[in-house]
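ERR on first pass: missing label on line 2. Operator R.T. fixed the label and resubmitted. Corrected input:
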Amino acid sequence: MLPDRPVTPSTLSVKDLPWQIMWAKDKCTLCGRCTAVCPVNAIELGVFRQRTLSASIDPNQAPSNVYKVYHGIRQKTDPAYGCVGCAMCNLVCPNDAIIPMRSDEADKLRFHVNRGGQPRSRGGRRNVAGGLLDQIKFIRISMLTDPALDAGRHEFELRTLLGRVLPPEENIKFYKENGWIPPVREIYPLIIGSMSFGALSPNMWEGLQLGVAYLNEELGMPVRMCTGEGGCPPRLLRSRFLKYTILQIASGYFGWDEIIHALPEMVEDPCAVEIKYGQGAKPGDGGLLMWHKVNKLIAAIRGVPVGISLPSPPTHQTKYSIEEAVAKMIQSMYMAWGFRVPVYPKISGSSTAMAVLNNLTRNPYAAGLAIDGEDGGTGAAYNVSMNHMGHPIATNIRDAYLNLAMLGKQNEIPLFAGGGVGKNGNLAANAAALIMLGASGVQIGKYIMQAAAGCLGSEGDRCNICNIGRCPKGITSQDPRLYRRLDVDMVAERVVDAFLAFDMELKKIVAPLGRSTALPIGMSDALGISDYHAAERLNIKYVV
Amino acid sequence: MSSENYIALSGKENGTRIESRVLEEKIQAAVAQGHTHIKIEAYGQHGIGGRLWQAGENKVHVRIDGPAGQRVGSMGSANTRIEVIGTTSDDVGWLNAGAEIVVHGHAGNGVANAMAQGKIYIAGNIGARGMTMTKANPRFAPPELWVLGSVGDYFGEFMAGGVAIVCGHEGQNPKNVLGYRPLVGMVGGKVFFRGPHAGFSQADAKLLPIEDDDWEWLADGLRKFLVNIEQHELLFTLLTQREQWQCLQARTPQERIGRPKRAMASFHSEVWDRTLGNGGLVGDLTDLDRSTIPLITRGELRRFVPVWENYKYKAPCEASCPTGIPVQERWRLVREGRVDEAVDMALAYTPFPATVCGYLCPNLCMQSCTKQSAFMAPVDVTQLGQASAKAKTPKLPPLSGKRIAVIGGGPAGISVAWQLRLNGHEAVVYDTAARLGGKITGSIPESRIPKEVLEKEIDRINEVIPHVHLQQRLKKTDTDQLIADYDFVVVAAGAQKPRTLPVSGSERLTTALDFLRASKQGRAKVGKRVVIIGAGNVGCDVATEAARLGAEDILLLDVQKPASFGKEREEAERVGAQFRWPVFTQAIVDEGVQLDSGEVIPADSVFISIGDAPDLAFLPDDIAVERGFVKVDENYQTSNRKVFAIGDAVRPGLLTDAIGAGRQTARIIDDVAAGRRPTADPRTIIDVTRINLEYYDPRVVTYEDLDHCGSQCASCGQCRDCGICVAACPESAISRIETEDGKFEYAVNADRCIGCGFCAGACPCGIWNLIENTPQE
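pass 2 clean. output:
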């Protein structure tokens, strides 16, 4: 700041910022790469004055004063340019002369990001590391009690069912009376959850789809990916790859007229239709794709003009009650594909989830229920929604499963769990825990961004700027100058790697349980936790 | 097989089966007694025939009749040969460490499991998991398993060494001699087999051609195998058809790193793009190149691009000067050694560059000088101002034919007339005074402005501007006539009517204006004790002049903190004037000034200097007046569109305000006369944070001369042509270009630039800006 200016309440020092740029003058070559790559312009070339005093008490040597100027990297302290800790500067630095370091205390920036009365919004997940799922252990290791399997040697086919599975006698009755039974898909239990074309860059989206297609067609793994709200590229709609896709319909209905127009030309049915009612990262809130992200491509896919903001309201406009809303949405979506495609709702984790579930149990068309817990990620949400709103997934899934078990329908309505699965890197362990708590499968979003595209975001509030279109890895940007950093094939390869590795880890967990084909859904006697209250609440073993 | 020398042991005693332990003890005892041929009638006992190492070098032959239990020959010794007459149970040769075991029939699951040495010959088929976990210890010959028929499922799992030979002769499943999923996890050894198979673990094993050495070994072995299992020679011919045999071998660790998987690029082009069409997922919707680019990009792919914004913004000095003099440009000329041009340039902006800039102006340019923002001394413009006394009268353009009457010959009137003339219009000044100059010549004390400087500038002005000396004040009708006669009229009559106080005895007051005029004409007198009501800058001038005329005790009163500042205030304080506030005058009495507190401040002379108001009696009625001042719009136009008004007649201000208003009005009139919409300078003030002051010595307190001033001017928004950007650019993308008009510019080679912004960061003058590149879509 200029020395003649008064400090304002929002005048911050580098120390007040969450990230401090450590710059080593002696190592820097002033190559300009760090300032060129910084996504938020947090650093710039600075001109520094250096003063040397030559002070001698010898009266014959007059003390003197010399100024010298040098150039170096300066961190800006304007809150609008606060470093986000992505460390792209470090990535491009040839000499390892620069790196952002996390402040050793709570930053002061958080008190000043609301300038203009606009509270902070960001991308990423709840800024809370750790989590209950990581504490759950698999304590049932069958060595001699059950046929112990070897994950490396035995054949596994870990699949789950998406769709309403009626009991055989009901199925027969249903068929006799209706001439129809609900469609059911056999799919891989790890699903790439809803991330829209628009939230993700074209290269990211295509990379994910390509990887999914490869897993299906080259490796025989029936992995499915949900489109998120924002439509589906016309070519995909008209290709056989559509069967690997779960189409999402949400409150904005973006792209759905394009999907309807594609219906007569479809060569395959989609895997399923997901009706989004809520999102774990920002429960009760809608979405907004800012006008500057709505370029030609996005506009074409969503079926809107270029350069307008696209709001998805928090609720569907024609939703009046659970009974009416869910039933009519499910009916409508079934009709689109002649009742051949399973349709299920997705809600955010909530203390009201049981009410939704109970409603679904009475609706034989409901193909499942996806619940997205509080740790889920998003491209853009208010910080307060992300950090403080939502319901943990573990208890929601557990309650839902036990509720189904009470009704004797635990194998009939599959539950899908999402929200922070693998957020600390323990994807298979978290997924297996959720499956044994009662989920038929899990959905991931942020994890695959991190694993397949090198997303830098973290619960230490690193990067998390998906909302401003400047994703340094090109994952959530619509700017070709950024998303071309992402190689479609390499993303696809990483998707394949991640799924294969997950598959192996899941096998390592379920093999000692003697499971090789049927997933241990709800097999909670295999779970233990050293937290007594959590054990009680989840109805799993308390082990210390 | 002769049984003559055999000792017979039975698995039964007294019709009852004995425990495996007891039979084992019997066998070991027999060996200990030196028996080398043992015949056993087995009844399902476990592990028969193994562990006979106490026989040492002596060969021990064990013949088993009857149903043997599991693990025949387990942990077998190299000295042992076991023959099982008929079919047997599981795990034959388990952990075999050298025994030769012959089964004259089929064998169950787990044959040869964990075998490390020895040979096992099976005359029939074997069950699941044969040859699993076998080893080859370099100290010994590798183990061998010979099977005449077929093997069961999961054959050779985790096989780590040894050789298995599966002859496929009358196997259990003629379509598959190797069973389901053989060789999973195989890391060593070989499997020779004959007959069809249904696949094996490609990740672990590979098919190899049978080399001559192998074949020789195999044929030799087959002969021995057939002898061992007492098979007919005829079978040898059947089994030794080389083309029927295949060999599987473990992949090396190096080979198994790359599992055979289709390359993603191949899947992308041959499956994905072939199905979806060229360009993949969105090839139909966009032509954009989506191929991969690096993090550091050039040209079109840069996220940010530098722009050389020379003269795009006003320097703070220029922006804050009401007259609008681009001070930074004058210093540039000085730096370039063109002092004369720097001096002359001022006349394009003001007719009083020396008088005002050099002496009378509070120099707002210096107050706003960017260097002040770092507590550095502002560049001293008064030096340049004072040097401007020598500025040469500009060459005047021919007259356009447009004529403008200017009412008032003060700084505002002179300024507008001057500018109009420089623009080629004829401007005639009407004034009641004999000399042009208004308050500058009429009432500002000589102590503030050297007479010769002022005279020189007035002379210069007189060369340019025709002046009509009115002997009397204008009347409304006169003004109407001027409006009719001229194309435009500019009212610049100033504020000539001193304000006074409505208190008793106010007739005793002398107004500041009267006093200063009289003083300038050399006819003013003051007493020893002087009180001045109103402690502004004019009050200060009165104080200074009063002191010059002999006053000794000077007091300035004000109702609030005095607004005086600058040179006027300094002069007044220098002559010993005192300031007192807040005080409120109640009356002027013989003794002096009486305050509302009742106090009487003794005074010989009392002056009032609380401002002057315009005398607008000459204005026609169609010209609107507001609170005693002429009402104008943002273009200085009055309610009569032909009539403009500027200076103190519009609102009280500094000399530079009046001069600036005159200059702007001249430009507006020039525009209006030419039928153009009046244009304003679109440039805004530069953001001073763009300027880098680190290049200057912060300890400079005073500037020695013009050159020193020029060198220390930060040249805000105006390129110094220093070339630091060229040096700072890490990619050598910036170059200096001489343009045709003899000027220069700095240009960026987009093909080299990476958009780092170093040019903007290093620029001393804030010329370079880094802006977002044009979006690509």
